[in-house]
């Protein structure tokens, strides 16, 4: 054990730097009191697999689409001509000519991207599972152009971020127009890929994308509210997600303004009715909210005023419910259907 950069480092440590995460970057190895790089002469995917395994980052990705350039390092070049079988558990089981023996410069520094690397984030939305998609590449976070952006692409991003299924994929900048570079365009996933990098896509500095057209998405785990026992996802007893647990809402002061927020949050159209007295049957679990006071314009029920989480004298016989209109699309057909019925009744 030795101290470097004010941190304890084990002899024989390796690390990946310059990617914004621990599972991708320029490979550095610790030797003789300092971090140094590895030259890419005879470097291949088998060597990269060993690095990923040693760092517990999955397997090395070979797809050249991956943002894989992490720039030249500095300091000593410790290793060159590294030869692994691919099944070793550590780089130190592989062969090489020895410490500091090389004929390289820092332009040849090895970079590795492992499968557990997630150079993606969602910004400007509500929480980490909803918002504008951003990609980390060449040490800069950039956005994604929305040409051909759809729900199959969002599915892969939600999976990679561990955010459940994709609910929506949108273009234009509802979550706010991002400044700066646009790294990705023409993402064309089938929807079942494990990583975004498995999909056909174009990764470069896209100066041809208007900054008003950023890809954005909403994954299932971003949702804080749901309607249950109403035979439709747009009607039922209201449940809110708080501290990892779903609970109900008491009907004191429950009205259409509150229902409007729930319907909008669920992308279920307009509120039709705000119901009390456990209209859809008594719920279970904690009763999270009561005296909910929404103005109607909040983006989530959690942002409305209330008596305080879990503070109430209610029981489940007072659970609040909501009926939303559903999507405008269905309303249109119901409207046509009713006209059709009226016409035939008159007849
Ligand atoms: C790796 O595979 C080779 C043959 O492909 C074998 O001889 C060797 O014992 C294996 N090493 C480990 C650490 O499993
Ligand atoms: C992208 O290209 C534009 C125009 O050529 C340039 O001004 C900008 O610095 C580039 N950005 C990055 C991060 O490479």
From TrEMBL:
Quote the cellular component terms of the Gene Ontology held in the record. Answer: membrane
- PROSITE patterns the record matches: SRCR_1 (PS00420), SRCR_2 (PS50287)
Residue intervals passing through the bilayer: none
> Per its UniProt entry, which superkingdom is the organism in?
Eukaryota
Query: SMART domains, per this entry?
Result: SR
Keywords (alphabetical) are:
Disulfide bond, Glycoprotein, Repeat, Signal
SS bonds (residue pairs): 84-94, 145-209, 158-219, 189-199, 250-314, 263-324, 294-304
Q: Does the keyword Protease apply?
A: no
| SUPFAM superfamilies documented for this protein | SRCR-like
Which InterPro entries does this UniProt record tie to the protein?
Answer: SRCR (IPR001190), SRCR-like_dom_sf (IPR036772)
Recorded hits in Gene3D superfamilies, A to Z, give: SRCR-like domain
Positions of the SRCR domain: 14-115, 120-220, 225-325
Indicate yes or no for the key word Signal.
yes
Extract the Pfam families matched here: SRCR
Protein name, as recorded: SRCR domain-containing protein
Which lineage? Eukaryota, Metazoa, Chordata, Craniata, Vertebrata
């Amino acid at each position: 054990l030795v101290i470097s950069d004010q941190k304890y480092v084990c002899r024989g440590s390796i690390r990946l730097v310059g990617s914004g995460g621990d599972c991708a970057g320029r490979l550095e190895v610790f030797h003789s009191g300092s971090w140094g790089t590895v030259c890419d002469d005879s470097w291949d995917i088998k060597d990269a697999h060993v690095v990923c395994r040693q760092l517990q980052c999955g397997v090395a990705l070979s797809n050249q689409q991956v943002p894989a350039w992490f720039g030249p390092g500095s300091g000593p070049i410790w290793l060159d001509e590294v030869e692994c079988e691919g099944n070793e558990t550590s780089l130190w089981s592989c062969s090489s000519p020895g410490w500091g023996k090389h004929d390289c410069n820092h332009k040849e520094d090895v970079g590795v991207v492992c499968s557990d690397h997630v150079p993606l984030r969602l910004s400007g939305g509500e929480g980490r599972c909803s918002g504008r998609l951003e990609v980390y590449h060449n040490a800069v976070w950039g956005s994604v152009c929305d040409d051909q952006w759809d729900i199959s692409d969002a599915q892969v991003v939600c999976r990679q971020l561990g955010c459940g299924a994709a609910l929506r994929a949108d273009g234009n900048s509802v979550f706010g127009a991002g400044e700066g570079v646009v790294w990705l365009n023409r993402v064309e996933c089938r929807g079942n890929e494990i990583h975004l990098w498995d999909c056909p896509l174009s990764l470069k500095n896209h100066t041809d994308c208007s900054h008003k057209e950023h890809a954005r998405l909403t994954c299932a785990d971003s949702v804080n509210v749901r309607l249950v026992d109403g035979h439709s996802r747009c009607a039922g007893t209201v449940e809110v997600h708080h501290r990892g647990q779903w609970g109900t809402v008491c009907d004191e002061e429950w009205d259409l303004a509150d229902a409007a927020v729930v319907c909008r949050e669920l992308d279920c159209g307009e509120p039709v009715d705000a119901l009390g007295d456990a209209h859809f049957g008594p719920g279970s679990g904690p009763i999270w909210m009561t005296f909910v006071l929404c103005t109607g314009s909040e983006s989530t029920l959690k942002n409305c005023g209330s008596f305080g989480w879990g503070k109430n004298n209610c029981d489940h016989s007072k659970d609040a419910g909501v009926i939303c209109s559903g999507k405008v699309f269905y309303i249109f057909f119901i409207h046509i259907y009713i006209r059709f019925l009226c016409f035939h009744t008159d007849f």
